[in-house]
Structure to design on (115 residues):
């Protein structure tokens, strides 16, 4: 995943390194919350799944197999295969959320790495 130079300046160094790190995943009908916990443990980046009021996002399942791929590309692929899952870079790490406009989040404070 490549970011424009201005965008890179806004990403904390530890998060930037984590997003560039290589990883391999083999998720088969894995709940999104479990997949994010695996990636969080593997890369030591805080990942928060914002379920919203109904708590449905973390229960969605994912089937995805990627080898030797950057974490950023894995997250992008996850957002491509899980409906309404958007991944955002925050100062503390990463946020996985449904459409932020529906959640009332301030978009200027988020850097989307998905879609």
């Amino acid at each position: 995943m490549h970011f424009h130079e201005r965008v890179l300046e806004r990403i904390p160094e530890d998060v930037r390194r984590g997003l560039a790190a290589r990883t391999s995943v083999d998720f088969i009908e894995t709940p999104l919350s479990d997949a994010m916990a695996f990636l969080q443990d593997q890369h030591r980046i805080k990942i928060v799944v914002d379920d919203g009021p109904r708590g449905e996002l973390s229960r969605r399942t994912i089937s995805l197999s990627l080898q030797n791929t950057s974490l950023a590309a894995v997250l992008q692929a996850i957002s491509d295969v899980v409906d309404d899952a958007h991944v955002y870079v925050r100062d503390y790490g990463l946020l996985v959320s449904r459409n932020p406009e529906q959640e009332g989040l301030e978009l200027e404070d988020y850097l989307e790495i998905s879609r």
